[in-house]
Amino acid sequence: MKIVALAGGVGGAKLAHGLAQILEPGELTTIVNTGDDFEHLGFYICPDLDTVCYTLAGLANPETGWGRSDETWNVMENLEKLGGPSWFRLGDQDMATHLERTRRLRVGEPLSQITKAFCEAWGVKHAVLPMSDSPVRTMVNADDGELAFQEYFVHRRCEPRVKGFRFDGVEGAEPAPGVKEALDLADTVIICPSNPWVSIDPILEILRPPFAQFDGAKSVIAVSPIIGGQTVKGPAAKMYRELGIEPSAFAVANHYRGLLSGFVFDRRDAQLVENIKGLNMRAYVTNTLMECLDDRKQLAMEVLNFIGEVL
Amino acid sequence: MKIVALAGGVGGAKLAHGLAQILEPGELTTIVNTGDDFEHLGFYICPDLDTVCYTLAGLANPETGWGRSDETWNVMENLEKLGGPSWFRLGDQDMATHLERTRRLRVGEPLSQITKAFCEAWGVKHAVLPMSDSPVRTMVNADDGELAFQEYFVHRRCEPRVKGFRFDGVEGAEPAPGVKEALDLADTVIICPSNPWVSIDPILEILRPPFAQFDGAKSVIAVSPIIGGQTVKGPAAKMYRELGIEPSAFAVANHYRGLLSGFVFDRRDAQLVENIKGLNMRAYVTNTLMECLDDRKQLAMEVLNFIGEVL
Q1: Do A99 and B84 touch (CB under 8 A)?
Q2: Is A96 contained in some domain?
Q3: Torsions phi, psi of A163, nearest 5?
Q4: Prediction ipTM score
Q5: Considering the entire predicted model, what is its pTM?
């Protein structure tokens, strides 16, 4: 079986981790959103890519879901004493990632190659690819103007009301080397439970033009990031509301309408099953909340089994 | 009494620290070499300036003389795991200094102003000034070509044989704001026991053109960094040898000939007293090795007392 997983940050990383515990290296490629990448303190920071890699490596902080476990904050604490900007928290171990990535980018190494080298160093055996080696920047059209994603997400704590999104640079951006090949070989694409607006849509925007076959020839399964009308983490539900859509598993399925063969969502939303089937996709109801490592593997197993029903 | 101290790294910082324990803030200004500043890993690093500031703040590592006490190395360790360059060791606390300085330089804040802000944050009460806000780069003319100073000093561990030095950018560089004023007000200039070739000469090159009065009107006292033909730290003695000069306190006094009213050197070199006096300067012999905090204060006290004899 060849699987491509599309992932954003924490939720996506958890399911990718579950899949990696079942599938052999070579059976799974995770393509990660880079729309929330940004430059800060002279570092080129890739939050989603790092979350996915740290999670697959078993290095992620289990409490936050992002950043490193057993992290220290000595640089940040001293930076604050000097009056430096501290709104984006960078741990010491994590900072090494940004430092070395930035150094390599400056000497011309592409992001996909850097990610491969880092995965090797961290012992990640399953392929992880940035969606593109070219910068694409998710811009949030908010009630008080357009904001760069991390400005909205971290600095402003998702408080501004959103009106829409724009992926700056997406027109000229090509999928990273290996993305097309992985999709060509894949039996199934799994859209992980990540934010549809700002984690998955940027990837789909990148993939669509060269992968027209993506819409029909392969089975595509999505897992809902919305459970009981709420997001486990992050602003997806708030975004749906502000865009005038009731946040629900149905809203997510409808978001991906036309693309999906199957949709996986939580027991708490079982009442939506007929509405979701009405979107011309198969539906699978289970526990989708990944609270522990076993939950990740269990959900991954069920998603993989569901593929058999969909194909 | 108004004193200006000229200092490079560890030895200079120790004497400046001794002076700061005796003199009131406002009585002492330390002007620091920036010729060994360099850019590394995207950071703008000022080794001598940081050594002086950390030492005056009581934050310096007492074992190495440079870097921070109670330092951690989490960024560096993780950088090495990713294959990043590790020849220049940057501790976590120290890295915050470079990070914030680089950020401020990028937004246009001059080095002297940044240094002032950092000194305030660290509780340094005596003025510390970089010799210039403009980049001046000490280049080492070595047997296998010209090397940037840190390349020679840290990466190549002072192994290449030196043939001379060049201070790139010195012609166009102005003394930093406050340097001229401090010199105008100073009764005495103390040249700290720093490397004459690569720590003090760059400062003198910067100061000379606008401060012609420097040569005669004020008393200038130097403390020898060479004891018993050897340097306490660093390559000064090796440099003298490679340039065909026998390394000694006399060689140092001769280096500053014409500039000095008085010269302070170690008991172990007492036999050189007549030769040094023959250079038309007063001589003062004492213990110049600063092994503990008390030694710094003791030497500073003796140097200040010596000023009375010289004036």
Answers
A1: yes
A2: no
A3: -120, -15
A4: 0.89
A5: 0.91
